[in-house]
Structure formats: structure tokens, C-alpha cells
Amino acid sequence: MASYSNGDNAECSVVTKSPMKKLSVSPTAQEGRQNVTVRLCLSVLGAVLGSFQFGYNTGVINAPESSIKSFMNQTEWERSGESMTEEKGTNLFALIVAIFAAGGCLGGLAAGWWADFFGRKVGLLTNTTFGIVAAVLMYFSRLAGAYEMIIVGRFLVGINCGLYTGLTPLYLSEIASSDIRGALGVLHQLGVVLGILLSQVLGFQELLGNTSSWEVLMGQSFLATLC
């Protein structure tokens, strides 16, 4: 504000306005924004397929229960000439179901060490080995006439899925910038429920949940692992 005097000794004042400063976005805010690129989408898809694997193998065992029990009974007959007792069949199938959770517990506990030792990306890639071996064992169990292969396969795929439950959210949170981290974070759970949904749909008797195709249903996780 400037002041001056006129001839009548009256003092006048003039208010001068300073030019307005333009607001600028800080470099850190600009760095926080990330464009959704094709490479990012492919990375996210590859990680979420691990979550899909977890959901699929959680629900896939429900539909072919009677077919697997029939296969175990037939295998027992071919080996010993005697039918498997109902109690033994129930216990073996319970083992097939429960050993997936045991493997998942082991894989979940090892996920932090696995991520630090191999790194997030390489850790996801090396984890596919468990899924591939497990799918091959379960698919060829009928051809080999060995229901023990299903038990071992379920244990290995449990380790595989347990590792995914730790690696996938960690990887998604680290490849995403702050403005899309929340959106990518929910994709892990979305992959899980989609896997459960598909396993239930394919488990219909008209599709793969029947006596002639149950091993295909169990080995389908091979495709998600390869992708």
C-alpha cells in the first residue's frame, strides 16, 4: 500500500495488489500417479491367477467326492482283491481334503521368507513348480492306479496356494502406485472367489464332475499355473 499528499494536505492511500501465484503440483504428487499400461495389466493378471489357483483348489474337491471314493475302492480291489471299507474310504477322502489345508499352512508360514529369498516376482514364478507337479500327479493318478498321488498332489498344491496368499497381495501392493493401490488390492480376493465359482460350475455332473472326467477337473489347475 502506497500513500501520498495532495495540495489540501489530505493524505490519500492507494492499495496495490500483488500478482496471484499459480498453484503447482509437487513432483512427489506427480510421481504418485501411474498410468495403467499393458505391462502393468499383464503383471497384475499373472499375480491374480495365483489367487484364482487358491480359490479353484479350495472348491474343486467337493463335486467329485463319490467318484474319487469309487476310484479308491476299485484300486483297493485290484491290489488286494478286497473292497475298501466305508470307514477307510471316508478317512482317506477326509485326508485328501484336509491335507490341502496342511500344505496351505506350511506355504503361508513360509511366504515371507520365500519373498525375501527369491524376491516378489521370482518368488511367484518359482512357486508355479509346486502347482505344475501337483496338477500332473492328480491328473495321472487314475491312469497310474494310485490314489496316493492325489494325496501328495493336494499337499503340494496346498503349499503352492499358501505361498500365493502371501506373495500375491505383497506383489500387487508393490507394483501399484498410491492412487491405484486400493483398486489392485481387492483383486486378490476377487481372484479367489472367481476360482471357487469356476470349480463349482465345472463340477457339475454334466461337465467334469462325473466318474469319467473327475481327474480332468482335478488337473485343470495346471492351466492357471502355466499362465
From TrEMBL:
Source superkingdom: Eukaryota
Pfam families in UniProt: Sugar_tr
Membrane topology, as annotated: Multi-pass membrane protein
Transmembrane parts of this sequence: 92-115, 122-140, 146-172, 184-204
Domain Major facilitator superfamily (MFS) profile: 43-227
UniProt KW keywords: Membrane, Transmembrane, Transmembrane helix, Transport
Xref: SUPFAM superfamilies: MFS general substrate transporter
PROSITE patterns: MFS (PS50850), SUGAR_TRANSPORT_1 (PS00216), SUGAR_TRANSPORT_2 (PS00217)
Gene3D superfamilies: MFS general substrate transporter like domains (1.20.1250.20)
Location(s), subcellular: Membrane
Protein name: Solute carrier family 2, facilitated glucose transporter member 1-like
Taxonomic source organism: Aplysia californica
